Fold each of these.
Amino acid sequence: MNANLDLAGAARRAQLDLADAARRAHLDLAGAARRAHLDLAGAARRVGLTLTTAELAGLDDHARLSAIATWRGRMINEHVSARVFASLERQLARAGRPTDARAAARMVGDEHRHAELCAAVVEALGGAPAAELPELPAVPEHADADPLEAALRNVLSISCLSETVAVALIDAERRAAGPPALATLLAQIVADEVQHARSGWRLLEDCAPRLGPDLRARLDDYLVLAFAHLVEHELAHLPARPAPSPAAEAIGVCDGLGARQLFFATVEQIIVPGLQAHGLDAVGAWRAAQRIGAAASSPASAP
Ligand SMILES: [Fe+2]
Ligand SMILES: [Fe+2]
């Protein structure tokens, strides 16, 4: 990326940032009206997961509450993912990709089922599988792009980035799980997440040879924002603390520092080279996203 391109990219990014800020301002008002209560108690009972007293031995009250909070957070994340794929389904249909749209529709069902499985763990731990949903901004429609480019942006962000990271993190949790029923439940989820990630990589593989240089450059710019958002989202969900007690880790409370390392390794060793292999400047986008993240978290940027 030469200096001129850097400047052009920065200018485009600034425009995108402004457009984003304007959208967020609207969403702040709209989001308040969309907040809702999620209650999966009935679904959790239908899953019917039980964890034996022996399997929960060594789990003190603090660790049990921490595990309940962890699984309730996952329940919410999975529920929110269903909504993301519902939006992607419409976007792929508009982009003339009916087969991919049908695949996205199946993923809506997968994510709802994942939310129910997580709810069952909350219930098995003695918690209530219910929560107030956080404010949910609309999934970006990318009205500034044609339907295929708009869909490609979301496929990159959702499948190639978020779902690929989910595969690595959830598989690590599966390997750390103590009770066999919990390991089986996590194996079911990770098998679906593998398909969710692969669908995006396949679509990119199919489209990449036909992407012109201008579209490729615009996707490179978009990747900066997508990577920055990914880091912000993942670090918000991965606590900056070391491994909890072995009993808590066996029940799904992750080693936050280990999970953060795995996240960065997945981005740098799997996602960036994968995107680069399809002709996108993922190396440059990842570096630019990290500069944005560092600037945002620097003390000098505090109000
Ligand atoms: Fe999921
Ligand atoms: Fe998924």
Note: The pocket of fe (ii) ion (ligand 1) is lined by residues 78, 81, 111, 114, 189, 193 (CB under 6 Å).
Amino acid sequence: MSTLLARTRLSNPSPFLRRFLSSSPPISPLPPLPNPVDRNVQWIFLGCPGVGKGTYATRLSSLLSVPHIATGDLVRDELSSSGTLADQLREIVNRGELVSDEIIFSLLSKRLAAGKAKGESGFILDGFPRTINQAEILKGVADIDLVVNLKLREDVLLEKCLGRRICSQCGKNYNVASINVKGQNGRPGMSMAPLLPPQHCMSKLITRADDTEEVVKERLRIYYEKSQPVEEYYRSQGKLMEFCLPGGIPESWPKLLEALKLDDYEEKQLAAA
Ligand SMILES: [Zn+2]
């Protein structure tokens, strides 16, 4: 490890990179990481609506001590602040228009710069980039190491999307779908527990008007069509890791950590402390 450190002139590698430096070469679908530099991970999470990418991205960011940056949150945060960009954004939202790539990118750049000023050196991006154009712009401000593409079998995904409920009072999201697919023809079964609300929200659950089977299917079709070029963009750079979720969080989380070579990350962190 000391020779590696000397060769790459790492003064203070992040715990994550330190782990990689001391481990044997990855043998799983994990793409080769770029030359280690003195910073934390810069990852992207891709996945269709309903796959649970926010959940896994949040968990990983707390494990790796990097911020989870979701573009939806950036928009909401900006809307609640003041300034030229906020005014511009309010106007667009009030007119019911889509927020452009340029504005999303301004918000992201602002967030990354603010993070850098606070000493942040990594992130997990969620919901960005959506287009090759955005990916190209992103290349100018970040050095993406890895793109995790989360996948879920279509029938389960559809059922999950249709199980989405929102509390009409507190606005929190829940999922009433209880997935229990039996294994068939060599295909493993899958079960996923519902995400039920606390008692006080239970009677106030509503289904979004656009969560009908027809609309969900169309949303997924559009997602696949639009996401393909972005996936291909990162695949051709050897940065894309496809991960098929084997079930709910209890089954998927350990497998995801394994695929990312992070399965003993917490133990190593504790041992190093
Ligand atoms: Zn509620």
Note: The pocket of zinc ion is lined by residues 167, 169-170, 172, 201, 204 (CB under 6 Å).
